[in-house]
Amino acid sequence: EVQLVESGGGLVQAGGSLRLSCAASGFSFNDYAIGWFRQAPGKEREGVSCISSSDGSTYYADSVKGRFTISSDNTKNTVYLQMNSLKPEDTAVYYCAARWALYSGSYNWAFRTYEYDYWGQGTQVTVSS
Q1: Which residues are CB-neighbours of 14 under 8 A, at least 6 positions away?
Q2: Is 122 helix (H, G, I), strand (E, B) or coil?
Q3: b/e sequence 85-105, b meaning 16+ C-beta within 10 Å
Q4: In whole angstroms, what is the distance from residue 93 CA to residue 42 CA?
Q5: What beta strand segments (E) does the chain contain?
Q6: 48-91 pLDDT, tens digit each
Q7: Which of 25, 49, 66, 123 is the most exposed place for a label (fewest CB within 10 A)?
Q8: How many other C-beta atoms can be found within 10 angstroms of the C-beta atom of residue 83?
Q9: Longest pairwise C-alpha distance within the chain
C-alpha cells in the first residue's frame, strides 16, 4: 500500500521556522520525484518545491526561493521541507506528493498537481503576524 505521511506542521510567528517531513512507503522511492504543494483557504493548490529522489535535483517556486529548502534522506524514504523566514502568506495546508520520474528528463511538470500519482493527507502550517 502506497503511503505518504506528512508531519511537522504547526503554529509559528512570522519570521520563524518549521521543518515538514514526508515519510513515503509502498513504492520504489528512488524512482520517484517528491513534490510539496500547499493550499490556502479559498485558493488553488500550488506547487512549492520538488526534489528528484534519484539525483537530488531541486526546484522551487519563486515565492519560496531563498527561504525554503527541500532535501531527501533516501535511507529513510523521507523528504523534508525546511521553511525559514515564514510569512503569514505561507499559511496553508501543506501536502507532499509523489510522481514516477525515472526517465523524466525535464522537470517542467514539477508544480502541476495533475502530474502526481500519490498524495499525502496534508499538514497545517499557520504563520501569525
Answers
A1: 86, 87, 88, 127, 128, 129
A2: coil
A3: ebeeebbbbbbbbbbebeebe
A4: 12
A5: 3-7, 10-13, 18-25, 32-39, 46-52, 58-60, 68-73, 78-83, 92-100, 118-119, 123-128
A6: 999 998 889 999 999 999 999 999 999 999 999 999 999 999 99
A7: 66
A8: 27
A9: 43
